[in-house]
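Ticket opened by: R.M.
Priority: normal
Category: complex prediction / small molecule

The reporter submitted a protein together with flavin-adenine dinucleotide and asked that the result be attached to this ticket for the collaborator who will pick it up next week. Submitted input follows.
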Amino acid sequence: MHKKWDVIIVGAGPVGSYLASRLAGCGLSTLILEEHLDIGRPSCCSGIVGTSCLSSFPIPPRVILRETSSATFYSPSGKTLRAATPNPVAFVVDRPMLDQSLAEHAQELGAVLRLGMGVRGLKINGEGVTIQVGGNGHDDLHARAVVLSTGFPSSLPEVAGLGLIARWGIGAQAEVPVNGLEETEVYLGQGIAPGFFAWLVPTTPGKALAGVISSQTGPYLQALLKDLRQRGKVKSQESQICFRRIAFSPRSRTYGARVLAVGEAAGQVKVTTGGGIFYGLVCAEEAAQTLKRAFGSGDLSSRSLAGYEKGWKSRLGTEFKVGAWARSLYGRLSDRRIDDIFARVQGSDIVPTVTGMDDFSFDWHSPAIAQALKHQALQGLRRLFPFRDTH
Ligand SMILES: Cc1cc2nc3c(=O)[nH]c(=O)nc-3n(C[C@H](O)[C@H](O)[C@H](O)COP(=O)(O)OP(=O)(O)OC[C@H]3O[C@@H](n4cnc5c(N)ncnc54)[C@H](O)[C@@H]3O)c2cc1C
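Result attached by the on-call engineer:
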């Protein structure tokens, strides 16, 4: 007789492991399957999270590499805007360490983790879920419910009959040695990062992460690194580049009978920045509450699990709508227009007004966008803003 787990979670990224800790903590037998042998590796992430993320989830201080309370933004022609806050609003975490610590936490609460277990397929029926990990069926695993927290590239959510992710971009990043970089720099311009932006984020003394998110593939990161070397900001010619797709819209359906998709597998990523850790953890919390209720009532039907999607949309729906609007507007701006907006903002008090808001946050962007658009200097953009109340 095969063991039947209450829940099998596919993918031990931060989202899968956090959810496992919540389910195991409620007494559900929980198995996490991770295809890699090392948790958190290979890594392709800057690891920037905000204060709400740190205060809401079990992220230990030892994973924090650096606190961030300022950043300088560069326009295509080199105009600058500096945003600074009295206290840190963002933190750079060691991403492999974050993943490892959340996986350890899940195991301490009773979840079982198996590494080197790539899930190849799954079958869902009225009796339960069969998870295929080997080629011949001998290694199949069984559960009452499955959670797909595989990150974006996996085809498993589609195999499980969940919807599609309509919009996505490409993220590329390299760790580089730097000359005395003190704060994060963000570079804007359709020639630098079409539709998105590039960054240089200091991590530990003498080191930084240089990265680009763009709507198209292309040698954008190589061009950025060349430019940063020529300007003396980056020291070495050598840098190993990682690439990964980033979801920019939620999956059209994130639940079904006995199955949920959570985290980047569900497209739960900030549309404005591509950050997926916080949204993924917020949605994992919704998934934990829905599954706890469903197991309590013995009803794992699609109708019973629909509460998960309702829950995460009620928490993040406005952020997704406003973020998608801002992202789409920015994607249509020419470099000249971006420069013009920089000039208007430079000549105004928009930056201190926004960073001085009581609820200014790296985790929640819609209030800051709405506040900036209220300013006289951005009236032209305000007229295009279709939302009345964003909070
Ligand atoms: C260049 C770049 C920079 C980024 N910077 C930031 C940032 O600063 N802040 C931020 O919040 N976000 C950032 N992100 C996004 C962030 O990395 C992701 O949104 C986040 O990792 C999503 O977490 P997750 O747990 O949903 O998925 P993942 O972290 O992708 O974890 C999924 C796990 O599932 C495993 N898996 C996949 N398929 C299978 C399978 N079939 N069987 C078993 N295991 C499987 C994978 O090996 C992986 O361990 C960045 C992304 C990129 C590309």
